[in-house]
Amino acid sequence: MVRSLKLFFFLVPLSAGAQQDYWQQEVHYTIAVSLNDQQHSLSGQLSVDYINHSPDTLSFIWFHLWPNAYKNDSTALAKQLASDSTQNKKKLEHRGRGYIDSLLFKVDGNIVKVEQDPANIDIARVILAKPLLPGQQVAISTPFHVQLPPYYSRSGYDGKEFMVCQWYPKPAVYDRKGWHPIPYLDAGEFYSEFGTYKVSVTVPSRYVVGASGTLLTTDELNIYKAVARKNEGNKGPFLYLPADPKGTKTLQYYGENIHDFAWFASPEYIIRHDTLHLASGKTVEVFTYSNRDGNKHWNKSTDYIKDAIRYYSGWIGEYPYPMAQAVEGPKNFSSGGMEYPMITLITSPDADEENLDAVIAHEVGHNWFYATLGTNEREYPWMDEGINTYFQFRYEAEKYKANSIFGNAIPKEIKKLPTSEFLARLYDVLNSLPAKQPVNTPATGFPNKEDYGIVVYVKTAIWLYIVETSIGWDNMEKGFHSYFNAWKFKHPYPEDLKAALEEAAGLKLDKLFDLSKKEGNFE
Questions:
Q1: pLDDT digits (tens, 9 = 90+) for 469-498
Q2: Residue 212 region, left (φ>0) first, then alpha (ψ -120 to 50), else beta?
Q3: DSSP labels for 480-492?
Q4: How much is the average pLDDT of 72-79?
Q5: Residue 223: partners with Cβ closer than 8 Å, 6 or more residues away
Q6: Which residues pair with 211 in a beta bridge?
Q7: What torsion, rounded to 10 degrees, do the Cα atoms 423, 429, 433, 437 define?
Q8: Rounded to two decimals, what is the model's pTM?
Q9: pLDDT tens, residue by residue, 386-432
Q10: Contacts of 232 (CB under 8 A, 6+ apart)
Q11: Where are the domains of the chain?
Q12: N or C, which end of the chain has less CB nearby within 10 Å?
């Protein structure tokens, strides 16, 4: 997720022994959901097969009920927004309510007890009728109804545009460090289990839908591509989706090796499509969906996605998914975008060409740092946002000799420097930002969004650049390839990244990683 900041400027794979005791839980979702665009609500049925790969016997499973974060002024989300002095209070005064209800949890077909977390209405424990032994699985199901709020954090609606995110009951992560049931927050992201998603989405027939996963409804996919071909190169008027204004349609999606599913819908999306052929011969379908009154630079949006995938694939490892998509959403004062597997929401209507490219690249980059490398973002937000920002800054430097923090303030003579020198100058100035907290601070350890943004995004990038200058870019790139190959579709922790970089560099990096615990600026 891209956060806005104020301007302060005038792996060879890890050894088998390292992971021989590693395990993670496995989930397989089947979800059917219908959108009522008049009442701004969802009705759904969820089934999830939960497989216990842990060495432990489980008597319950924590579930996230994140739409309840929007329900009242006592939730963790509401309290965080109210306590943050950097928030635009006027924009939050009229925010509407959202919630999830009509739940009836069953395990293997039998109704079970559910215990509400006493501190958070968006967390609950599903009590298992009998203990779940290591190696066993259970089938958990429930109907659900979601009232979407007016859009102000991540999920909601704006007119006839729907951003459906963090919307279904979802098991919390149980990993080698225990359970991780976490309330929904605006500044502070997520941690989820990997698996597969089979999702059917029913919407009014005139709506265009972009979603995590591959669209299996061939007729709809072919229509999207045909509309995109006719819109190619157009400056308007654009072709929209031909449809029965009173009918509905059901679209089928499938996602594999993902840990979340989001979808976006509007009757007025402009569809663009392209394909990307990677060095291995793999083909990625690229779609973007923009608004007719939105940012004019979306005419280049598929190129921005393709460039981001090429750069990140070279630096870290090949893009692992069959789809890559970006959606233009309404302006969000909290961020410039929000990432989900295979799709991202971009909320930067005022961005110029270079900055829109940077935002899209950042959000596409989360397909590596968030989607594929499923870190605990609430506890270690730098492992997602910070690492991704480090690569985003290199992307901007190599492509434009630019940086989105500084905008047009970079002198022309600096832009003429070779990339390595440009980055050195850039990071020297970035290190003057007032970054009080250590890089290794949990998301809940920041008093406001401003500090969160400076430290989690920028200070982490500065620290990783210090590591790079110490071990060399070649070793940095080699180390990240090793890290990616060893931990893709898994849950790595900081020590796992450290081990990969140490193996690549042939050095112990204790002192460099100790810098992640340093308060204030780096010397």
A1: 999 999 999 999 999 999 999 999 999 999
A2: beta
A3: HHHHHHHHTTB--
A4: 94
A5: 241, 242
A6: 263
A7: 50
A8: 0.94
A9: 999 999 999 999 999 999 999 889 999 999 999 999 999 999 999 99
A10: 272
A11: 25-379, 388-517
A12: C
